[in-house]
Amino acid sequence: MEQHAYRLPTKNAFSIPNFPNYRLGPIDGSPCDTLGLNNVPVALFRYATDTMDYREVVFHDLSYYEPEEWLWDFGDGNGSTDRHPTHTYTQDGLYEVCLTVSNVNGEHTLCRPVLIGTVSTDEPGQAAAVRVFPNPVQDRMVLEWGGETARFTLSDALGRLVMQGTLRKGNNAINLGRLPAGLYVYSIVQDGKAMSTGKIIKQ
To answer: What's the total number of domains in the chain?
Structure first.
């Protein structure tokens, strides 16, 4: 290949082709835009918690169709106009985080639940020997239990029992595919004593 003689930094004989950006949208004011479409932005974001402080959340904007302004509502009375903000929550809980993006053509809002602190115990300062992932979950989740055999129960937001079973030490696969989307609370009981409780979001 010699068409324009661009020198590439690496060999590309077996690489995948470059795909176009399908989210560019119309070119506002272009004579080629015979449909008269405008770039009304679409809000989209992801988030991740800090590995050293689980209450510190880093939000990353993924919005498309040329957003020009960003307005964040972190669900605890605080907000930001930064594109990629970092926010520290003062308390554990379930927060509804909303991002509104806008430009001269319009605006769009996306809200997502953000769960801060998935595990609690009856004894302050004692870490529970349990880990739930992924959370939020779509169908199948894994509950990693570090204790001996225990009883597992799952209730919906109204306190109704929707699932129960036995946990064994190690990874326990739990299928939530039949449950509707929403917030659920799990409880782990061993020898009549509540060992751990936490929240699960089913998408």
So the answer is: 2
Assess whether 145 and 105 both reside in one domain.
Answer: no
> Per-residue pLDDT for 194 more than 70?
yes
Among candidates 65, 101, 98, 108, which has minimal Cα distance to 83? 101
Tokens, residue 93: 């809980």
Q: Which regions of the chain does DSSP assign to beta strands (E)?
A: 45-49, 56-61, 69-73, 79-80, 86-88, 93-103, 106-116, 119-120, 130-133, 140-145, 150-156, 161-167, 170-175, 182-190, 193-202
What are the tens digits of pLDDT across the range 170-193?
788 888 888 998 889 888 888 777
Pair (38, 70) in one structural domain? yes
Cα separation, 138 vs 13, whole angstroms: 39
